[in-house]
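retry 2 of 3: previous attempt timed out while embedding D-glutamic acid. Reduced batch size to 1 and resubmitted. Inputs unchanged:
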Amino acid sequence: MSDCRPIGIFDSGLGGLTVVREILRLMPHERIIYLGDTARSPYGVRSEETIKSFGLQCANHFLKHDIKMLVVACNTVSSVALELIEKKIKDIPVIGVVLPGARAAVLRTAEYKIGVIGTPATVNAQAYFRAINNLDPNIRVYGRACPLFVPIVEAGLYDHDISRLTAQHYLYEMIDLGVDCIILGCTHYPLLLEVIQGTVGTRIQLLDSALWTAKEVQDILTALNCITSLKDDGFEKSSFLLTDITEDTGIQAELFLGRKLKSFQRVTLDI
Ligand code: DGL
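retry 2 succeeded.
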């Protein structure tokens, strides 16, 4: 059995393309419908109420598409609004990026101390904390909001003294706390992986939630016998829907996706 319908994926903006990249790396024949709410990004510095309402509007948009699974590829929405979205989208599997990253970290920590970095909304919502403690209540979780990382990545400064200094500012405390794993709890942070690893040293393992989410998508589709039987290039057949398009959109998208986005189209969300 197979299911050739696309996978729906959404994010506050273009950062969720890091999740798309990993999904297509594992399952190159899958088709994706990606929605990025670029008109209202970033979400991570907004209130819980606003994030819930924006997240639901993005999820509702997929009711217009025949998808086989919905991936909330935004750590902020996954942390604040996943339960609400799951209640709304009932007929297909809905997953966020928090649980896959949490699971990977729980399996790896030897010191029982895990760090989580993300947007202020992600860290304040404590979703990673709850997910980790549900898996193992003996693990201590230390969260650190890193609000400057998102604009630094979007400005293309991820390999620059500015990003290195910022990483030191945010992360030295976490080294002192003795964590042995840090979850990169934001779509933008895979681009800072080398800078963060250089700052915290190789004793601390970095866990990219995008990668673990892609593995979870593959596991779920495999378990449900829903991997596509199509053999063509899924990326070529995928659609990229954005709520705003600027001159920089193509360059920014390439940054996160690791390849050129040939076409994307503007959509308006029902509010
Ligand atoms: N996509 C968001 C996240 O993963 C980062 C950008 C934003 O703040 O909207 O948390």
